Amino acid sequence: EVQLVESGGGLVQPGRSLKLSCAASGFTFSNYYMAWVRQAPKKGLEWVATISTSGTTTYYPDSVRGRFTISRDNANSSLYLQMNSLKSEDTATYYCARRKTVAAVWDYWGQGVMVTVSS
Amino acid sequence: DIQMTQSPASLSASLGDTVSLECLADGAISTYLMWYQQKPGRSPQLLIFGTSNLQDGVPSRFSGSGSGTQYSLRISGVQPEDEGVYFCQQGYKYPLTFGSGTKLEIK
Question: What is the DSSP string of chain B?
Fold first, then answer.
């Protein structure tokens, strides 16, 4: 059974950093692109980052480029999101998601982890 | 960026009704259109990819269609468990973008 379990969320002050983790199991992690998608409270979904199977290629929207870094550890089936210079508008539930073999389709999602940016 | 506009914002249906949810892209997306369902307090689940391909395990009452910039999700014979918010997403061009969602209530 595919499982994605996020951790590392919490309350952080504006301008500070936080690192999220996602532990994957039930599939060959190194064979799949992975992504982070977030959802602000009572709002819609926003794609945050995608990483290739080897980790050499990454993609970000303008809203987080230069502040967030997605990375992975294939040996330990783990995905990460390093978030720097956090802003109040980064407050959201962050989901780890597996990309289906078809491009830009996410077939499994974690349960999400809440990040609150507030002083 | 490609903007995705969903309509209606909310919809109320009776058990067994057939409903259609619409998604409009403001640019060509070449059928790279996905639909996700999100139930309250849960993470999104993939229903349909590539406009009309049903994800494994998704009931056949769900179907998708469309081309160009106009796409739709049809639920034939809604069930109580279909209550939730439905999001469309384009996978044609970065940044990948979602619609704002259609909230489906079952009366």
Answer: ---EEEE-SEEEE-TT-EEEEEEEESS--TT-EEEEEE-TTS--EEEEETTTEEPTT--TTEEEEEETTEEEEEEES--GGG-EEEEEEE-SSSSPEE---EEEEE-
Distance from chain centroid for Cα A81: 5
- Does A109 contact chain B (CB < 8 Å)? yes
Distance from CA of A92 to the nearest CA of B (A): 13
Handedness of CA A34, A80, A114, A66 (dihedral sign): negative
What pLDDT digit, counting tens, does each position of B1-50 carry? 999 999 999 999 999 999 999 999 999 999 999 999 999 999 999 999 99
Q: pLDDT of A39-78, one tens digit each?
A: 999 999 999 999 999 999 999 999 999 999 999 999 999 9
Tokens of A73: 């550890």
Q: Check B43 against A109: CB less than 8 A apart.
A: yes
Q: Around Cβ A39, how many Cβ atoms within 10 Å?
A: 20
Assess contact for A38 and A94: CB atoms under 8 A.
yes
In angstroms, the Cα distances linking A111 to A81, A102, B13 are 16, 22, 28
The token pair that represents A92 in the structure block:
């959201």
Residues of A in contact with B46 (CB under 8 A): 100, 105-107
CA B66 – CA A11 distance, rounded (Å): 42
Pick from A13, A16, A34: which is nearest to A101 by CA?
A: A34
